[in-house]
From TrEMBL:
Residues 28-136 form the Surface-adhesin protein E-like domain. Pfam families: Adhesin_E. InterPro entries: Adhesin_E-like. It comes from Thiorhodovibrio frisius. It comes from the Bacteria. This is Surface-adhesin protein E-like domain-containing protein.
Length: 142
């Protein structure tokens, strides 16, 4: 009888732990709104700094649907992107992009390996340049 009670307590504790466990979700922080109304968010918990390169996830919500003919005949309203920022070189590359429609459904995605990345200087005055400037300056101060 003691074994049954003890076993029941262990099983109940296990299921209680599962029921109350909450996974760590993205902490999207609003970074800014560009002149055309598109909004940029950064996942505060995705920051990782390796060998001079800052890794982070960025969400962009566009003011109106966009289309990229080169990768398919679809319109998207939202992207989640894995950005890599080389702070010493002040260059940026995009490793992964997930495209969503207006209902939040994934409609396309791609991911590149490190040898395929196209490192570039972000144009001044846009979200990538501002994100790079703010975060690289903070890293350099520490």
């Amino acid at each position: 009888m003691k074994n049954i009670v003890f076993g029941t307590m262990i099983i109940a504790s296990f299921f209680s732990a599962i029921a109350t466990h909450r996974p760590v979700l993205a902490e999207w922080v609003h970074f800014g709104t560009d002149p055309n109304g598109s909004e940029t968010f950064i996942d505060d918990q995705s920051f990782k700094f390796e060998e001079g390169v800052l890794h982070l996830w960025v969400k962009e919500i566009f003011d109106k649907p966009k289309k990229i003919d080169a990768i398919g005949d679809f319109y998207f309203n939202l992207t989640d992107s894995h950005w890599l920022i080389n702070c010493p070189e002040r260059t940026l590359a995009v490793k992964t992009v997930i495209f969503y429609d207006e209902n939040g459904e994934v409609i396309h995605q791609f991911s590149l390996n490190m040898t395929q990345l196209a490192w570039r200087d972000p144009p001044p005055g846009n979200s990538p340049e501002a994100i790079m400037r703010v975060h690289c300056d903070l890293l350099e101060q520490n």
